[in-house]
Structure formats: C-alpha cells, structure tokens
Amino acid sequence: MYEPPFPEVDEVVMVQVKSIAEMGAYVQLLEYNGIEGMILLSELTRRRIRSVSKLIKVGRVEPVMVLRVDKEKGYIDLSKRRVSPEDVAAAEEKYNKSKMVHSILRHVAETTPGNTLQELYEHMAWPLYKTHGHCFEAFKRMVSDPDAILDALRRPDGSPAVDAAVKEALVKDIRRRMTPQPLKVRADVELTCFAYDGVMHIKDAMRAALAKSGNPEEGGIKIAVSLVASPLYVVTCSTLDKDAGVALVDEAVAAAAAALEKAGGKVVIKEAARAVSERDDRLLAEKMEKLRTAQEEEDSDSG
C-alpha cells in the first residue's frame, strides 16, 4: 500500500496473526505487501499469562508497534504491549483509509486495459501520499474537483500520470464509494397539553419547531415533525453535518417547548437529538405500523 517496502521503527502497523509458536506469534504486515513479522512472547502483554492462545488468536487483525527491522534478512520484530489506545485508533483509521484507496486502485487496474496496480501506485497514489499526507484525502477532494488533483500529476517523462480511461474509471469509483451520505438526526419527545384546545396548542408547537428549518436550496437543513402515537412525536432532519443537525433539532425541540409551555403544556424529551441508523429508522417505522394497526383494530371493535 505504501512506497517504502518496510515500516519504520516505532511505527504502528496492522497485522494479521498467521500462527502461534513458543517464541511468540508470526504475523503478516497487511499494509506492507504481507511481509512476515513476529510478535515476541515478551511483547504480547505487560501482564503474566498462562496461555498465549487466550491473548492472541490466529486470523485476528491487530495493531502492533515495530521494534526492529532487518531489511537484509527480512526480520521484523513487533510489540503488542507497547501500543497505546491512541495508537490503536490512529492505526485503524490509517489502515481503513489505505484499504479504501487500495480497493479503488485495484478495481481501476482490473477495469482499464494496460494499467497495472503497481503503475497506478507509482504514478498516482504514492505521489498523492506525499502531497496530501494520505492518498485518501486526495481522493476525497476528487469527489468534487478531480481535475485539480489529477492534472498536477506527471510521469517521469512529463506525460500525464493517468490517461482518460483511468481518470473516468477512477472518478466514477471514487464518487460511488466516497460521496458523503446524509445522516438522519432524530429526537423523540412527548408533547402534552390538557387545555380544552390542547390539540391546537400542540399543532402550534409543531409549527414553531418547523419554523427552525433552513432553506435547502441555500444549504439549510429542513426539520420534520412526525406523530408516532400520541403523545410521542419525533423531530428529525437529514444532513451531512452531524453536529449542525443535532444543534438544529435541539433548537426545534426548544422552540416547541417554549410555545407549548406558554399554553400550559409540556415537552418531555424521551431521547435527545442523535444520529440514527437505517436500523433505528426501520424499528421506528415498524413501531408506528404496529400502533396504527392496533388503533384500527380498536376503532373497528368499538364501531
């Protein structure tokens, strides 16, 4: 994945455990073409252990620190116990970015004749690692402006680093995989008002929440309010900016609360604003459908 064939001492790398022996664990360095290294038994943990197999398992992917590199003999000694939680997070993030870059380049190499994966790395990816810190960051910019990145790349003879076919395949794959997807932000609230015209006041509170919407054509975020089953409502928005979405939904809930409290009503926050997954959305839809069905059956029985 990277231009240097070997890692540097003190670098934290991702490895996959291939076998366990008396001296330690043999591993493959996933970011360095699968070259072999060893996690010495003394470098597995700071604690005393009775069984190595309970601490590390074959097939597992682990972040480890490079202790020694013998480039002539190909020996690489590694440590698991010297890796801090911060190192783990940084190494996993870097590895995941590198995996994405590698996957895109491999797909481009396979779908454009005359271009090998090695050549794509040499003429494009590795130079982008140098200019952008990580090729992934350059690919992110290419979602909106590929020419600004690719036109600056040249082969040693001065010709463009990538031809038209590679550029088309590359940009298409990058946009398919890396275009940010909107997040849904949701808060679950109960709206109650026991005044004789309480329903009207609840509707006013909902309008106050909706009034916090921005204009989507101007980059604003639109708020939506939906009834789950009285008195439970959800306040939602879709956005690329999670923090902005959470802040806006909080504002909308506060506006609804202020409007309802003036009429003697109350807003109770059951679940604060947070990003929700497709599964959360699906569970909510199922809950709403069950409640709707139950209400219809109740209405049918009473009729």
Poorly predicted tracts of residues: none
Strand order of the largest sheet: 1-2-3-5-4
Structural class: alpha+beta
Order of helices and strands: EEEEEHHHHHEHEEHEH
Rg result: 28 Å
Question: What share of residues are in beta strands?
Answer: 15-25%
Q: Specify the overall morphology.
A: extended
Q: What characterizes the major β-sheet?
A: 5 strands, mixed, barrel
Amino- and carboxy-terminal Cα gap: 70 Å
Mean pLDDT reading: 86
Determine the fraction of residues in helical runs and give it as a percent range.
40-55%
List the helices and strands and how they pair.
Elements: E1 12-20, E2 24-29, E3 35-40, E4 61-70, E5 75-79, H1 85-111, H2 117-132, H3 135-142, H4 146-150, H5 164-178, E6 183-192, H6 198-210, E7 223-229, E8 232-239, H7 242-262, E9 266-276, H8 278-302
Helix pairs in contact: 1-2, 1-5, 2-3, 6-7
Protein architecture, described:
There is one protein chain. Strand 4 and strand 5 form a beta hairpin. Helix 6 packs antiparallel against helix 7 (242-262). This protein starts with 11 loop residues before the first strand and ends with a helix. With 303 residues, it is α+β, with helices and mostly antiparallel strands. It contains 8 helices and 9 strands.
